[in-house]
Design a protein that fits this description.
By secondary structure, this protein is mostly helical. It contains eight helices and no strands. Helix 5 packs across helix 6. The two termini are 59 Å apart.
Length: 177
């Protein structure tokens, strides 16, 4: 029970910090004025912020208009991609080091081309699949579950031996010099 009371007291102390007082700009300005940081340690954005200050100070407790509605951003491409993954699965591996496009992006590109060429909306999905097959791209194969490969065997690391050091050895060798 004593530990629990001590824990609760420590938790309250940790919550009473004053990090919410002032902005990062005001703190940095104070550090600069007091000499706590050097001129070369000041971040790049500091001079820009001073040259072009915001209209309203960005504080954590600033009230933003309650009447403002934040719109959800949803593109047509997002809807097509969601349908693609629902139908063909999410098995493709995203490897940014490999050149080329993902199967989903190939599908979306062809979908947009066909949509712009005037293919009716109700036939667009099937037309895209057929057009990709005519181009020699098998979407089902590209988006299939990846084959799990066994990890390559690790090379044995050379064992480093620790030198034996003792205080007696240190003092004995220092006396002989």
């Amino acid at each position: 029970l004593h530990c629990l009371i001590h824990f609760i007291k420590r938790r309250r102390m940790a919550q009473s910090r004053l990090e919410k007082i002032g902005t990062i700009y005001s703190k940095l300005r104070g550090f600069r004025a007091s000499g706590a940081i050097k001129a070369e340690q000041v971040p790049l954005w500091f001079d820009v912020y001073e040259a072009f200050p915001p209209k309203y100070e960005p504080r954590w407790d600033r009230k933003i208009g309650q009447d403002k509605v934040i719109k959800k951003i949803l593109y047509q491409e997002d809807i097509v991609r969601a349908k693609f993954y629902r139908e063909f699965g999410t098995g493709e591996v995203v490897d940014l080091t490999r050149p080329g496009k993902l199967a989903s992006q190939l599908f979306i590109d062809k979908y947009n081309i066909l949509q712009e060429s005037g293919v009716p909306r109700d036939q667009l999905w099937e037309s895209t699949i057929q057009a990709l097959e005519l181009d020699g791209i098998d979407i089902q194969k590209l988006s299939a579950e990846p084959v799990k490969e066994a990890p390559p065997p690790e090379e044995p690391k050379p064992q480093r031996t620790k030198p034996e050091i003792s205080l007696k050895g240190i003092f004995d060798s220092s006396n002989t010099v």
